[in-house]
Each structure stands twice: as structure tokens, then as C-alpha cells.
Specification:
heterodimer; A: 420 residues; alpha/beta; Aconitase, domain 3; 2 domains; four-stranded parallel sheet; globular; B: 160 residues; Aconitase, domain 4; seven-stranded mixed sheet; 7 strands; 18% strand; binds iron/sulfur cluster
């Protein structure tokens, strides 16, 4: 029996020639991602237990993002604890305010993600980095503390599911629509404990940004990780970008590798999708739901706050005015600058949007766009749970940047294809 | 004796267990005061030390915030019994020394307000109200060790 890409990555990380799904392994960790919510408690735990060491300063990447710049005194204290620790440990990859950005957009952009590696982060959407042919998963603060101190964590090697993405994208359909369709099919726990592997010709049409939107939401199907193999697009993205070590190992699934579930998505038949409250699996094609009035539009986050997302939104908003409160959040300082240089920020300004500095902000109901009771928000984020963006009585509708932008222009759920 | 607080719900998520608006702190007492707030605002008031939460599938889905375990521990909940758990939440429980009981069909076997006695190592729940005994698969030995040591870091320290 052959191995999946995920099994091969674990074999390497555990120093074995072969592993199979279900094996318990101690894996060496290649990158640990740290942010402002889950890392300060991890630091305190390490202190409490008298553990002072950091396993490898070059393998820890730190960025405040959830509440940055600090939204109140309590979050300022979190940032201070993170800052004091990062300086004390002399961590070379500490992205301070001004260079800080939404973690899952920042780390790949700044060249910290390499194929073939095992990456953990104190955040559930750490699965994003699987777009680069790496195993990547979210952990809680205790695991994070153990990873920071020892560089080793135990894992149960996950079984894999495989989704083959066929066909060509039609106008107005994006990778966000693909992943909303996948989650609609298997449900929010359809991939529990499993790695979701994406293969197929439609990936060729996707940029790394588009692929990251897909792996980002693997957790919304309950997945341990999402993964996409390396190709020319991956290599071109990594070229000249990687920090530190520039070499990496490329693994591929064997032809006879085992999958516990297989399915195909014909991208040429997809319509723009909207996931209704309060689960990411409540996806509906836009044809079935357009016209529902919205109060706010949010374009940003680790799912869809990258430059190509902002470009699509700007294309739709150009020369128009939005009818509802619209907040655009470039996910990193580099994206923010690009949005200015390319004239996108001006288009958003002219359309009547707020453009904020990089932050997680309202995505998790933190700040910068909290919803009131009864508010409906069309959002390019990944999660629409009860109270996710504010009041437990508000509602979040998930969609692509194109659908969000078109809905902002009309003030109600709208078909982006009319604007492209 | 532990009293069961039953929520006939699947996918009880980390935003309901501890809303993100409270994530600007990791103070266990503050988190405990808001435990389960977006699911049941009255939960903290009625929960007595050692009481048990019972739910359906996929308990703890969503964010990786360990705050969702700390809030429940802080509210002095004795255990969570669910048909199934979201992966990160399950792992976080063990790492924090908190026992997650996976029990398919729990919602049919336990009613709100039932008095329970749990044998964690043996894997049985005596439902005193209904006069029944329910079996569950106990945690594997290595996970039980971590829980009994009081969590992963304590466990690592002791093993050294
Ligand atoms: S943008 Fe939203 S989903 Fe992404 S890391 Fe930040 S809070 Fe989490």
C-alpha cells in the first residue's frame, strides 16, 4: 500500500521510513506560528512550569493580529506579554505593529512556509499553509507551549479524504465557492480528524492565494488539515521569497495511497455560493438567495483578504457607491501598500468603504466592525457561527469577495456575474 | 453526584462556549463567568461544582482557543459528555487535564437534571435518576496519564 502526501510528511518528521493513518508519532515541528490571543497564555504556562527555553528561535514566527493595534487595555496587556517575550528570546521573526498582519496571510507572504514541513500554530486556521504541500494544523495554548519549548508534538497520523477538482471556472466563480460547496456536501464535521487532499486540473487555474482560500477552510469541515501538492505555481510563489532555508522537500501521494472518502467537484458547474447562518455548511447558490437585504459588508481575513481578493472587489465597486456599511481590511501591510499603489484604496474610498489597517478585527467579533442585534453581514471570512462577528442575534453570510462586493453595491445579496 | 445539563444540540462551537469578545484576557475567573454565555446565559448560575454538560455531535468545533476549555474548567464543570468532539477541542481537553467523554447516543440516555456518577478509568456512568448504567470507551492509557498528571506540561515535567 502506498502513502498519501500527509503520511509521507509525517514519516519524515518522525524520522521513519513509513507511517500509516492511525499511527501515533512524535513529529519534529518545522514552524510554530504565534499570535496575540493564544500565545500569551502559552508563555505564562511555560513560566509557571519553569520552562525557559525556546527550541529554535528561527522556527518561531510571531505576529499580533487578532486585536492589533490593541483595541483596549486588556488586549494591550496581551500584546505587551507577547512583545516582552519575543524580545527577551530575541526572536528574529517577530512582526511588530507596522509589519504585523493576519497570521495566515503574513507567514506565506513573508516566506516562512515550505513544502514538506510540519507546521503548527495557535490558531485553528493554521491549516491554510497546506496549500504549499505542507502538513499544517491548529493547536491550543498548551500544545503551543510544548511545541515552543521542545519542537516536538505527538500526532495521530490522519486518514485522508480526496477531492478532485475538475473543469474550468466560469465567470464569477472562485475558489471560495469551491470550498463552500465541499463543506456543504460533507458538513462541518464531515472531515473530523482527517486530512483533506485537493487534486485535479482545476487547481492549475488557481493562484496560491486562491488555493489558500481552500485549505484555510478545511477546519470548517472539521478537518485536521487541508493539503494541495506542489506544482509550478507553488514553486514560482516561493522563488525568492523564502526566509532562512531555501531548500524544501516535495512529496506526492502514491497512486495506490488509501483514501477514506473520495469525491469530485466539477468547477464548471458551480455557481457563486453564499453560506447562510449559522454554519459554513449552509451554502446556497446565489440564484436561490439573491435579494436578501444586508446591513454590512466585510472584505478581509485570512480567507479572503489578499491582494487578488481586493482586486476583484475593486473591479466590481469601481465607479459605484456601496449602499451598506462596507469595511475592507487588507490582511498584511504589504497587501495594504499594494492596494494603495494599484489604486484600489482610492476605488474603495470613492465607493464609500472604510479601509482599515491589517487586523483580524471584526472577523471574530473583536473590533472594527462589530454587528448589532439583528444586523446581517455579507462577509468574505470563514466562520458564521452564532455571535461570531458581534451580537449573538446578528447574522453572518459567507461568500467570495466578488459576491460580497456586488452585495455591498446593491445592499442585498447579489449576483456578482452582473458586474464582471 | 453530578447533575447533567443537557443541550440537545450538535456543533456547539467555541464561540458559544466562550465568545471572542472575552478573548482579550486569559484570566480563568473572567472566562468562567462567561462560560456557555451565547448558548445559555443562565448556565453559570445553575452549574454546581462537578456538574456535567451533555451534548450531541462535534462539541467544541471552531477555534483552537483553549479558553473554551479553561472557561468550562473555571466554571467547575466536572466533565463534558458528547456524541463526538471537534478534534482540537478534544486534544485541548486532554492537554489541560480535563476528561472529555465520548458517548454516542448520550442524548437518549441522559435527561436534563439527571444525577450521574462517573467512573473515568472504568468507563461507566451510573445514571442514578434513571437507574441505568451506561458504558463509554475510556481514554487510552497515554491520554489518561496526561489527564491524571493535570495536563501536558505537568506531564512533560514529571517525565523528565
Ligand atoms: S482573520 Fe479571522 S479566521 Fe483568520 S486568523 Fe484572524 S480571526 Fe481567525
Amino acid at each position: 500500500m502506498g502513502m498519501t502526501i500527509t503520511e509521507k510528511i509525517f514519516a519524515r518528521a518522525a524520522g521513519k521510513t513509513a507511517v500509516k493513518a492511525g499511527d501515533l508519532v512524535n513529529a519534529n515541528i518545522d514552524v510554530v506560528m504565534c499570535h496575540d490571543v493564544t500565545t500569551p497564555p502559552a508563555i505564562s504556562m511555560l513560566k509557571e512550569h519553569g520552562i525557559d527555553k525556546v527550541f529554535d528561535v528561527n522556527k518561531i514566527v510571531v505576529t499580533p493580529d487578532h486585536f492589533q493595534p490593541a483595541k483596549d487595555i486588556a488586549s494591550a496587556e496581551l500584546h505587551k506579554r507577547l512583545d516582552t517575550w519575543a524580545k527577551e528570546k530575541k526572536l528574529p521573526y517577530y512582526y511588530k505593529l507596522g509589519r504585523a498582519g493576519v497570521c495566515h496571510a503574513l507567514l506565506p507572504e513573508q516566506g516562512h512556509i515550505r513544502p514538506g514541513e510540519v507546521i503548527v500554530g495557535g490558531d485553528s486556521h493554521t491549516c491554510t499553509y497546506g496549500a504549499f504541500g505542507a502538513f499544517s494544523t491548529g493547536v491550543g495554548s498548551t500544545d503551543l507551549a510544548a511545541a515552543i519549548a521542545t519542537g516536538i508534538l505527538w500526532f495521530k497520523v490522519p486518514a485522508s479524504m480526496r477531492f478532485t477538482l475538475n473543469g474550468s471556472f466560469r465567470k464569477g466563480v472562485y475558489s471560495k465557492d469551491v470550498i463552500l460547496e465541499v463543506i456543504r456536501r460533507i458538513g462541518t464535521d464531515g472531515a473530523l480528524y482527517k486530512a483533506i487532499e485537493f487534486v485535479g486540473p482545476a487547481l492549475k487555474e488557481m493562484t496560491m492565494e486562491g488555493r489558500m482560500t481552500i485549505t484555510n477552510m478545511a477546519i470548517e469541515a472539521g478537518g485536521k488539515s487541508g493539503i494541495i501538492g506542489v506544482d509550478a505555481t507553488t514553486r514560482a510563489y516561493l522563488d525568492g521569497r523564502l526566509k532562512g532555508m531555501t531548500e524544501y522537500t516535495v512529496f506526492e501521494s502514491d497512486a495506490d495511497a488509501a483514501y477514506v472518502h473520495e469525491d469530485t467537484v466539477d468547477c464548471s458547474r458551480l455557481e457563486p455560493m453564499v453560506a447562510f447562518p449559522h454554519l459554513p455548511s449552509n451554502g446556497k447558490p446565489i440564484g436561490e438567495c439573491k435579494g436578501l437585504a444586508m446591513d454590512q459588508c466585510y472584505i478581509g481575513s485570512c480567507t479572503n483578504g489578499r491582494i487578488e481578493d481586493l482586486r476583484i472587489a475593486a473591479t466590481i465597486m469601481k465607479g459605484k457607491e456601496v449602499r451598506i456599511r462596507t469595511i475592507v481590511v487588507p490582511a498584511t501591510p504589504e497587501i495594504w501598500k499594494q492596494a494603495i499603489d494599484e489604486g484600489l484604496a482610492e476605488i474603495f474610498y470613492n465607493a464609500g468603504c472604510v479601509v482599515s489597517a491589517p487586523t483580524c478585527g471584526a472577523c471574530l467579533g473583536g473590533f472594527m466592525g462589530i454587528l448589532a442585534a439583528g444586523d446581517k453581514c455579507i462577509s468574505t471570512t470563514n466562520r458564521n457561527f452564532v455571535g461570531r462577528m458581534g451580537s449573538p442575534k446578528s447574522e453572518v453570510y459567507l461568500a467570495s469577495p466578488a459576491t460580497a462586493a456586488a452585495s455591498a453595491v446593491e445592499g442585498k445579496l447579489a449576483d456578482c456575474r452582473n458586474y464582471l | 453526584m453530578a447533575k447533567a445539563h443537557v443541550y440537545k444540540r450538535d456543533h456547539v462551537n467555541t464561540d458559544e462556549i466562550i465568545p471572542a469578545r472575552y478573548l482579550n484576557t486569559d484570566d480563568a475567573a473572567v472566562l468562567a463567568a462567561h462560560c456557555m454565555e451565547d448558548l445559555d446565559t443562565g448556565f453559570v448560575k445553575k452549574c454546581q461544582p462537578g456538574d456535567v454538560i451533555v451534548c450531541g455531535d462535534d462539541f467544541g468545533c471552531g477555534s483552537s482557543r483553549e479558553h473554551a476549555v479553561w472557561a468550562i474548567q473555571g466554571a467547575k464543570v466536572g466533565a463534558v459528555i458528547a456524541h463526538s468532539f471537534a478534534r482540537i477541542y478534544y486534544r485541548n481537553c486532554i492537554n489541560c487535564g480535563f476528561y472529555p467523554i465520548e458517548l454516542h447516543g448520550a442524548l437518549e440516555k441522559i435527561n436534563d437534571g439527571d444525577e450521574l456518577e462517573i467512573d473515568y478509568r472504568g468507563g461507566t456512568i451510573a445514571n442514578k435518576t434513571q437507574g441505568t448504567t451506561i458504558a463509554f470507551t475510556p481514554l487510552p492509557e497515554f491520554a489518561l496519564e496526561i489527564v491524571n498528571d493535570g495536563g501536558l506540561l505537568e506531564h512533560i515535567k514529571r517525565k523528565k
